[in-house]
Structure formats: C-alpha cells, structure tokens
Amino acid sequence: MKKKLLIFYIIFIIYTIFVLSIFNRTTLDLSKLFLFEGDWLLIMIFNSLGILPIYYILFLSKFKKQKWYVYVLFVLGFMFGAFAIVPGLLLLKREKNNSSKIKQILFIILPIILILMLFSGLVFGNLSYYFDLFLSDSFVNIMTIDYVFLISIPYMDDVKSLPFLNLVMWQD
To answer: What is the pTM of this model?
Structure first.
C-alpha cells in the first residue's frame, strides 16, 4: 500500500502546486460554508472533509501506540485533509490493537453518514454550479480532489468491495 499511496500522494501534491500556481483564483465566500449557506453540494463536500479525518483517526486507533507526530498529522487532517493524513498513513506502524464494539459501530456509521451527505448534496445541490466552481475556483478544485483522494485511499490497499462499504472492512 505504501508505494502506491506515495505515488498518488506525489501526483496529488504536484497537481495542487500546478493549480495554485496557474489558476490561483478563489471566488467562493468560505464563511457561507461554515454557516450552511449556499449550494448544498458544496456544503456537503466541505463538511464531509470534516468527517473523513474522524474516520482516519478511528482507523489509527486500531493500531498500537504510535510516535507523537503520527497523531499530530492525523489531527491536522481536519485542517489540511489528505495533505496531512497521507504522511500519517505512510508513517503508521501497523501492529494490531484490540478493537472495541464502539469502534466497530463507528466504522459502520461514519461511511453511512458520508453516503447520506453525498446523496443529499447531489439531490439538493446544483451540479452545474459546482462544476463551474470546480473549473474557476482553485479552493473548490483542490477541495474536490482532496475529497476524492481521501475516499479512494482504502482502494489503494487492494480492498475489493462496494464504494464506502469497504471502509468498514478495511484490513491491514
């Protein structure tokens, strides 16, 4: 997993640098996202990026004690998304720890919440507006790529399953 993840991470970083250097335009009012105002799809993707780090911290808790900087990287995922979480995954020592029932339940609930958020965003949001923002606003562009990257990380671990549901069964 680490080699494939590292390759995709490097591509992600290069893409982000390219977007920020060539198309560094932000037209979106970020305060509207925090107040749940504006396009529903945009709000749901933005808020899903707040739930995904919770999932990865939960994933981190499946393993024995890590170095302090691994925990810091996972917590920074709330602010920087995949930019911080992927290095944490690459540095993760995968020695299994005992899993509790609460963790197992959360491994089921969090993907369901993500699916419901994405579904509601697609149903109540404006896809053409989102696509226009994706092409014109560097923040929305990078946020979307970050979202897709964080969702696809379990697939880089060669887990064959339905979308999102493989998050529940993610084994290392």
So the answer is: 0.81
